[in-house]
Specification:
alpha/beta, 13 helices, six-stranded mixed sheet
């Protein structure tokens, strides 16, 4: 699915990076032995496909990127900040809610249904702004990553608290003595384990400063890799995918200016 979503970007010459988790865990596992401990082991048949996927990504003219000890989310976050420093427009193709922390005017998350998740979406879905997502998750917890929240604080309470106080630090400092919240919420905040909250906040927050080599040192084709993509489709018996590639190729050839006219494609950086 991800390759299909990325295909239009790749074929239009956008700089595309496929970020992958490090083998053997990340620094978050060093911080907490419980982190992602609830997840099942990747099936063997899927593990065997990883190398093929990496070869496919490279064949498509994109950059597969894995950094030892780092998660894909942090790779994306760091590249996102670098791109913004160069006035890039960025699309992140992912269903991971943690990446919604990065959403801003020049950064959108595109989900599996090809929906463009912008700042309005984040607020409608969670009741907070993108730069409050990490604080929100630290309060409500993140079951998918086995990260604990504050006992008794649910999504509505977390969103309300962030709406009043702005961030987690201010909530912990000012909310327990504030008349703006109920006695029940105040007592739950007073009873909360501050060390656990700090750990949860560290685990859910994206790292935007991880060491990544200069991507300009990697070869990047200036033209769409039609032959490589079609060869990959034939080798893996992907007839429907091949049909889509041919359709995209014909569209590109018949309308070479489409990149400049299409506001959702041809971004300078896409992760």
């Amino acid at each position: 699915v991800l390759l299909k979503q990325a295909l239009p970007y790749i074929l239009r010459g956008a700089f595309v990076v496929f970020a992958m988790d490090s083998k053997g865990g990340s620094w978050r596992n060093d911080l907490s032995i419980d982190y992602k401990a609830n997840r099942e082991k990747m099936p063997d048949d899927l593990c065997s496909q990883i190398s093929e996927i990496e070869r496919a990504v490279a064949a498509f003219g994109a950059l597969p990127l894995r950094i030892q000890g780092q998660e894909a989310d942090d790779i994306i976050a760091t590249l996102c900040m670098r791109g913004l420093e160069q006035d890039a427009q960025i699309d992140i193709l992912s269903t991971d809610k943690d990446l919604l922390q990065l959403v801003q005017p020049d950064v959108n998350v595109i989900d599996a249904k090809d929906r463009r998740l912008n700042e309005d979406y984040v607020f409608q879905q969670f009741g907070v702004k993108p730069d409050q997502i990490a604080d929100y998750l630290a309060m409500v917890g993140d079951a998918s990553d086995n990260v604990k929240g504050i006992k008794g604080i649910g999504p509505k309470s977390a969103a309300k608290l962030l709406g009043i106080f702005g961030n987690l630090d201010s909530i912990l400092q000012d909310a327990p003595t504030s008349s703006l919240i109920s006695t029940g919420i105040r007592n739950k905040l007073l009873a909360a384990d501050r060390q656990q909250i700090a750990l949860s906040r560290r685990l859910v927050a994206l790292d935007t400063q991880i060491p990544i080599p200069n991507l300009y040192t990697y070869p990047q084709s200036s033209s769409a890799p039609w032959d490589e993509v079609l060869e990959f489709a034939d080798r893996n018996s992907l007839s429907a995918f091949k049909t889509r590639v041919i359709r995209e190729k014909n569209r590109h050839v018949s309308s070479p200016q489409a990149d400049e006219e299409d506001g959702t494609l041809g971004k300078k950086y896409d992760y």
